[in-house]
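INFO batch 0412 | record 1 of 1 | parsing
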Amino acid sequence: MLVALFGAYALFNGIFTVIEAFSRDVSRERWRPLLFEGAIGSAIGVVTLIIGPWLTAMGLLYLIAFWAIMTGVFEIITAIRLRHEIRGEWLLALIAILSMAFGLLLVSFPAPGALSVILIIGAFAFATGALMIALAFKLRSLRRPGGEVPDVRHAAPSH
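INFO prediction complete | emitting tokens
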């Protein structure tokens, strides 16, 4: 079941990353790292779903590690390219570092990683999810004049 869940996650994450890449401003070439990240994620998802029944725990562990490291590399490239465009790109860089550390941890300690892969995946998913939510709020705030979310606690009440 874990193989199927990871395969589906990697596939859909890759598809949505490719969609995001094509919705970018392609004239400035910031879409390429996202496109590569999405293509790798989709390919790993398809491979996982195809060979899933024959995939061993160690095989899955190395596949997840490779995916996490490659995703982190392309997220770092994206964060570097966005550093002059947005504030808060450090959140994307932190997500990338966490992703690469997760992959390297799995590769460094494969036996304990294979035994506790569910806990590691859960912790990784929770941490990156929290950081992605923080990044989403940061990016959303850029739509407002001045770039910051207004403090509604001190706003005058409207009657």
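INFO post-check: The chain has six helices and no strands.
INFO record closed
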